[in-house]
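Q: Sequence in, structure out?
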Amino acid sequence: MNPMSSGNLSVVVALSALCLAGSPVSAETAPDSDNGRYTFSPTADGVMRLDTKTGAVSNCSNSAAGWACYAVPDERKALDDEIGRLQAENDKLKAQLASRDPAASAKSEDKPAAPNTAENQRKIEIPLPSDQDMDRVMSFLQRAWKRLVDMANQMQKDVASGGKI
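A: Exactly. Output:
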């Protein structure tokens, strides 16, 4: 008799299927770290869960219905979304302005744009005061100082004479 008869063959196929079914085969690969995909940090009302693959953070707490995790809003994503929205709105407004006044948009296109560096953005020019302006300021300060000294002298005289302030 052939050792691989139809009865034996079906047993071998069945055992092979059981072995394959018992082995963990998944579409996702295991994370690189030994700790797993998630990192947990205790909080006052539960735990914070960090997904080490995606960077998503969730707040997990235990309630009467059981454990539930809710995603924590990603502030950076919200800021990036707002920047994108504002850039689109800016482009739209520029297009509307150009359609209303084509001459103004042509003038702005003729000028070479100044390099957008941090140094150019922070540059503020303040004209220096003239000698006449400086003389006026010095005169004002001298008068104010003289009045302050006169007030202090008057207070000393009043206190020395026994009067009330």
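The first helix runs from residue 6 to 22.
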